[in-house]
Amino acid sequence: MWIDPSRPAERALVTHGHADHARSGHGAVWATPETLAIMALRYGTEMGTPMPYGDGFEANGVKISFHPAGHVLGSAQILLEHAGERVVVTGDYKRRFDPTCAPFEAVACDVLITEATFGLPVFTHPPIEDEIAKLLAARAAHQEGCILIGAYALGKAQRVIAELRRAGYDAPIYIHGAMQKMCDLYAAHDVALGELILATGLAKAEMKGAIVIAPPSALNDRWAQRLPDPITAMASGWMRVRQRARQRNVELPLVISDHADWTELTDTLLELRPSETWITHGRTDALGRWCELHQLKARALDLVGREEEEEG
Amino acid sequence: MQAFSALIDGLIYTRSRDHKVRLIADYLRNTPDPDRGWALAALAGTLSIATVKAAAIRAMAEERFDPMLFRMSRDYVGDTAETVALMWPEVSADAVAPTVSEVIDLLNSTSRARAPIVLAGLMDRLDANGRYALLKLATGGMRVGISARLAKTAFGQAFDLSVDDVEEVWHALRPPYAELFAWGEGKSDRPDPADSAFFRPFMLAHPLEDGIVDLDAYAAEWKWDGIRIQIASTGGETRLFSRGGDEVTAAFPEIAAAFNGIGVVDGELLVRGDVQGGEAASFNALQQRLGRKNVTAAMQAEYPVFVRLYDILFDGAEDLRSLTWTARRERLERFAAQLDPLRFDLSAIIAARDFNHLAEMRAAAREAEIEGVMLKRRDSPYLAGRKVGLWYKWKREPLVADCVMMYAQRGSGKRSSFYSDYTFGCWTPDGALLPVGKAYSGFSDAELKWLDRFVRDNTVARFGPVREVEKSLVLEVAFDAVHESKRHKSGIAMRFPRISRLRRDKPADEADTIAALRAMIG
Ligand SMILES: [Zn+2]
Ligand SMILES: [Zn+2]
C-alpha cells in the first residue's frame, strides 16, 4: 500500500487532489470524498473508497485514518497506527484560516512525515487580509484596465475568490475556462464563490476594472492579450522573494500560499514533538538543520521524481 | 519609510520605463521634505552613508542567525540584504516605522562600529519590505534600474519642468535638495548655480541617415573616438562631467589640474601618441578610468590623456550658448590659446570642397581615432539634447548600434566559467527593451573578465544557465546587416553581431531604438 504514489499502484492512499499527489491509473484508491470527487473531475470515472475525516479502516494490521490538513478542499493527513506506534503523513498542509476547506487538526504521533515546501527561514506568509487589501488597492488605482491573477486552478483560485468575498468584494469575478469546473465543484461543496463569469469571448471593454483569475501558465500567453491593459499578479508563496516574482514577469506579487510557512512548520514540530521527524517535499536540508538546533531527531526523506512544488 | 519601500518595490516589479518614471514622480509630489529629497538622492546615486558597508549587514546576520540556515537562505534568495530582510523577526504591532530622514540622520550621526546596532534597531521597527528598502538605502545599492538621468526626468515630470532645466541646476545642489523642491513647487526662484562648477546638458547629434548636406551651411569635423567630456571651471573650481552628467573629475585629475581657463567647454578625451594595441586599447584605457575615484601616477603616465576641444558654452561668466556655431568657434579658438597645448588642442575643421569631397575624405580616413564625421550647422546655437537638423554624426562604419545588455549565459570550452554570451536589446517607443541579437565575440580577455564581473554583480534573475542583468550597460554592437525576423519579438535580427566596444560612459536610456535599427534594414 502506497501513499500518494507517483506511478500507478495496486492500492493507493491519496492525501489530496493536486497532480503531484493524486495520479491516475491506480487499482484501489482511498481518499476523502472531496478528493475522490476532484480526481473524478480530472481523470474521468475514478473509483475509490471515500474516507471522511476521522474515518478509517484496517489493512495488514495497520489502522489507517484520514484527518484534515487545511491545504485545499478535501486535503487530508493520514494516520497509520500499528502496535501502539503512530505515524502521521501530513501531505501538504497549512495552519492558517481558509474559508474553502476544513482547518488543520494536530494529530499526536511518534513519527511525523512532514512536507517542507517553504522550509527556509525566509518564507513568512503575511496575513492574507493584507495581500487581499493590496490587490483591491491595485484594482481601485487601475480602473481603466484589469488585474490578472495567476492562481493554481485547484485550491488557490477558489481561496482567492472566497477571500475577496470575505473582504466585501461582490462584483463578478472573471475566470479562465480551465477553472470553471473546479469552481463549480467547490460551489457544489458549499464553498460560496459569488458570481463568476467566464472571461473567454468577452469584449475588452466589458472587463475594464475587473479582477480576472487564470492558471499561472496563461499569464504570458495569447489568452491574456485579449484582456484590457492587465496588471499581472500572481498568488503564490514564492512571491515572497523578489527575484522569483521578476522571473515570472509579475508586477503585483501576492504572497498567498496553501502551504505552511517556516513558522507554521517549526511551530507544528514544537507542538507535536514527535520522537522522530521525516522531512519530504521541499527544503529538507534547512528544516533538518533547524531540528538539529532544537534537539529534534530528524532525517531527510528525499523522494524521487519530486520537483519544486508548482502550486506554491 | 513605508511610502519609500512601496516605491522601491514598485520600481522592482515595473518593467516599463515610462511607468517607472510615473511612480517616482507620484512619490516626489506626495511625500514631504526632506524624505523625498533623500529618496531622490538614493535613486540618482548621490546619497552616501559612510557608516554602513555591506560587511555590516553580513555581521548583523551572522550575529543573529544560524550560519548554516543563513547560507542556505542566501543561496536561495541570491541577495544578502534581501535575505536578511526576509529572515528578520516580524515587526511587533506597536512599532512605529521610522521616516527616511530619521534613518539618514541616525546612520549619519553614528560611528562605523556602532552602525550595525543602530541599523538593527531600525530593522525592528519595519516590515519585510521596509527592512529591504532600509538595507538598500543604507548601503547605497538600490538596483532598481534607474539611472541618474531617469531620476531627474521623473523630478521634471513631477513638477512640470524639462529635464534639461533640472540638469542645469542639479550639480550645484546637495541632498536632500530642499531648494530644488521649493523651485519645483513654485515656492521659490530657480536655484542659482553660479557659485559652483556644474554640468550643462550636452548638445547631441542625430545620425545622418542618407542624403547630403550643404557644406556652406554645415561645418565638418572629424568624429573622434574617445570619451565626450565637459570641463566646467566656474566658481573657483574645475569639474569634469561625462555624457550622462556624472562627475568624473577624480578619474582624470591631470586634466582638471591643467585647465587654467574660466568657463565651460565641450570636447573629446583622447590618449596621445601611438598606444600599444591601437585604437581599442586606448579607448578601453579611458573607459577603465571613468568609474574610478582615484587613479595612480602610473596609470596617468601609461596613457597620457588630453582633450580635443570642439565647443565653448561659457567664456568666464558669459553664456555663449545662444551664439551661432561660427561665433562660438571663434571664441573657442581665442579661449584655447591660453591653455596648455600638451593637454588641450582644437578639433580641426575639415577643409572639404563639397559633400562628395568630404565623403571621399571620410572613406580614406584610416586613423584609428577617427570614427567618422560630424556635421554642425553653422548658424545654430548650442542646445541641450538632440535637435533635428542641427548636428549630424556620420559614422565611418555604417552599421553599429548601441544596445543594452539584457541577458548573459556561460560560454563553452575554455570560457565555460565566464558569462560570455550576451543578449542585448534596443528600446521600443514606450520605453521597453526588446532583444535584437546575441553576441559572444569582439572583446578582449580583460574585457571578458570585466563583463563577467558585471553580470555577476548585476544579476536580477536567473533562468537555469541564463542570467538576466540590470539594464544599465550599453554595448556598442557592430553587425553586417539587419533583417526582418519573426522569431524575435522586436521583429528584427542582426547578421553577425559582435561587441565592438563597451560603452560604460553611456546611459542605458540613450541606447538606440528598435526604430533606428529598423531604419538600417536593406
Ligand atoms: Zn498540494
Ligand atoms: Zn504537494
Task: Kindly provide the radius of gyration of chain A, computed on alpha-carbon positions and rounded to a whole number of angstroms.
Answer: 20 Å
Largest sheet geometry of chain A: 7 strands, mixed
Compute the average pLDDT of chain B: 88
CATH topology of the largest domain in chain A: Metallo-beta-lactamase, Chain A
Ligands, ions, cofactors: zinc ion
Q: Tally the structural domains of chain A.
A: 2
Q: How would you name the CATH homologous superfamily of the largest domain in chain B?
A: DNA ligase/mRNA capping enzyme
Structural class call of chain A reads: alpha/beta
Please provide the count of β strands of chain B: 21
* Corresponding CATH architecture of the largest domain in chain B: 2-Layer Sandwich
The H/E string of chain A reads: EEEHEEEEEEHEHEHEEEHEHEHE
Q: Strand percentage of chain B, roughly?
A: 15-25%
Portion in strands of chain A: 15-25%
The helical percent of chain A reads: 10-25%
The helix content of chain B, as a percent range, equals 25-40%
* Assembly status: heterodimer
> How many domains of chain B, as an integer?
3
How would you classify the helix and strand content of chain B by structural class? Answer: alpha+beta
Radius of gyration of chain B: 24 Å
Secondary-structure arrangement, i.e. CATH architecture of the largest domain in chain A: 4-Layer Sandwich
CA-to-CA gap between the ends of chain B?
53 Å
